[in-house]
Automatic annotation (TrEMBL):
Family designation: Belongs to the D-isomer specific 2-hydroxyacid dehydrogenase family.
Protein's recorded name: Glycerate dehydrogenase
Enzyme Commission number, as recorded: 1.1.1.29
Top-level EC class as recorded in UniProt: oxidoreductase
Gene Ontology annotations for the cellular component aspect, listed alphabetically: cytosol
CDD domains, A to Z: GDH (cd05301)
UniProt cross-references to Pfam families, sorted A to Z: 2-Hacid_dh (PF00389), 2-Hacid_dh_C (PF02826)
One GO molecular-function entry: NAD binding
Length: 325
């Protein structure tokens, strides 16, 4: 007799090929529309499913995990960041957590470069000029930005994505610097021609561009606080494709308004969709709606990783991307 299929609840719409494969493999409950689940719906899913597939828009905290039934064995996150899941509490309840690292590295690094170039070369202002019909033709003095070649890029967090940014930045002629919890092996530093800074303060004070590529954890929350933002050169710019909580958004907004930092490119925000309204008014910022990993290929590969994690677990093994607290 075939064994019963795993009951899997997915909290958001996923790309069609991923949903189709899940229907083939699991007893899966999929969303009809793309609205995030309410807390009540999430709690019900945690009571009724063997596996839930949340995304970063679902807060799986200790209170919710306490409502899970013994049946729930795996939280197979659709995404790399797991700062919305209380992984420690899940472990105490015997629930495994997995994620989807690796497959969104290139896409997020591309978006980081897109933001660096957009801010330094004033792309949104150029676009606005074209869309308004105001453009009067080429001018020797209009919309002059800064050249990225030769500039110092400081990467805060030199994991997979940080290193992919380093590779791209080097190809654009930037000088790569980094700060990381652990210094990289000499051969990796050499490969990226990257200079290591043990002191984050010292690195921040000397960079032309600062890129945030570390995850959000209790120790990275507001790593770029008001004091550290003030160390930046007034002509420097900051970009963030990681998590908004790493930067004190209010302090950043104040400094951008005061011209104490030249510009910012942000794909993520400290309070999710509740963006500081003053940030929206500024010309020297480029704001994107958290689309760093938003490619067709990347989102399908993320789904494939989720499926492999669930299947491997169902076969009695550790999911390959199990997150260990
Ligand atoms: C992730 O997977 O954590 C990303 O932020 C999604 O783009």
């Amino acid at each position: 007799m075939p064994s019963a299929r795993l009951s899997v609840v997915v909290t958001r719409r996923l790309p069609e090929p991923v949903e189709a494969r899940m229907r083939d493999l699991f007893d899966v409950t999929l969303r009809e529309d793309d609205a995030p689940m309410s807390r009540e719906e999430l709690a019900r899913a945690m009571r009724e499913a063997d596996v839930i597939v949340p995304t970063l828009s679902d807060r799986i905290d200790a209170g919710l995990i306490a409502q899970a039934s013994d049946r729930l064995k795996l939280i197979a996150n659709y995404g790399a960041g797991v700062d919305h899941i209380d992984v420690n509490t899940a472990r105490q309840h015997g629930i495994l957590v997995s994620n989807t690292p690796g497959v969104l590295t290139d896409d997020t690094a591309d978006m980081t470069m897109a933001l660096i170039l957009s801010v330094t070369r004033r792309l949104p202002e150029g676009l606005a000029r074209m869309q308004s019909g105001e453009w009067q033709g080429w001018s020797p003095t209009a919309l002059l930005g800064g050249r990225v070649a030769g500039r110092r890029l400081g990467i805060l967090g030199m994991g997979r994505i940080g290193q992919a940014v380093a590779k791209r930045a080097a190809a654009f002629g930037m000088q790569v610097h980094y700060h990381n919890r652990r210094r990289l092996r000499p051969e990796i530093e050499e490969e990226h021609e990257a200079t290591y800074w043990e002191s984050l303060d010292q690195m921040v004070a000397r960079m032309d561009v600062l890129s945030i590529n570390c995850p959000h954890t209790p120790s990275t929350f507001h790593l770029m606080n008001a004091r550290r933002l003030k160390l930046m050169k007034p002509e420097a710019v900051i970009v963030n494709t990681s998590r908004g909580e790493v930067i004190d958004e209010n302090a950043l907004t104040r400094m951008l308004r005061a011209g104490e930092i030249a510009g910012a490119g942000l794909d993520v925000y400290e309070h999710g969709t509740e963006i500081n309204p003053r940030l929206r008014e500024l010309k020297n910022v480029v704001l994107l709606p958290h689309m760093g990993s938003a490619t067709v290929e990347g989102r399908i590969e993320m789904g494939e990783k989720v499926i492999i994690n669930i299947k491997t677990f169902d076969d009695g093994h550790r999911p390959p991307d199990q997150v260990v607290p």
